[in-house]
Amino acid sequence: xxxEGLTCKENVIKECREEAGIGGAIAESxxxxxxxxAMPVSILSYEQIEGCKFERYVLFCYDLHLPWxxxxxxxxxEVESFHLLSIPCIKNILETSTQFKPSCAIVTIEFLIRxx
Length: 116
What we know:
There is one protein chain. The radius of gyration is 15 Å and the shape is globular. It has helices at 8-20, 24-27, 87-96, 102-114, and strands at 39-50, 53-63. A hairpin with a 2-residue loop joins strand 1 (39-50) and strand 2. Residues 30-35 have low confidence and may be disordered. By secondary structure, it is an alpha+beta fold. The two termini are 28 Å apart.
């Protein structure tokens, strides 16, 4: 969710820190040569209906290239773990299971479309 009082940039930096232990210096780096800047790439929206409950969501998507040796850390308890998966493996999971939450699946599919 986009907290009131924070800009999108401030929120992505906060979420990087909370969800993966990614410090602000990486998330907002201006150093293009190291590819370590969160770049806004798309806005996705979807609706979820469960019985009489109807919810709309808007997702602000960013690409963030991290150094190969960067160690991700679950820092706020919301993320269970991190896994490095191949593209074929990710496609298989999306096609054959419900391992990804709907919000994660839509962002992953959009990423795969953009990156061919």
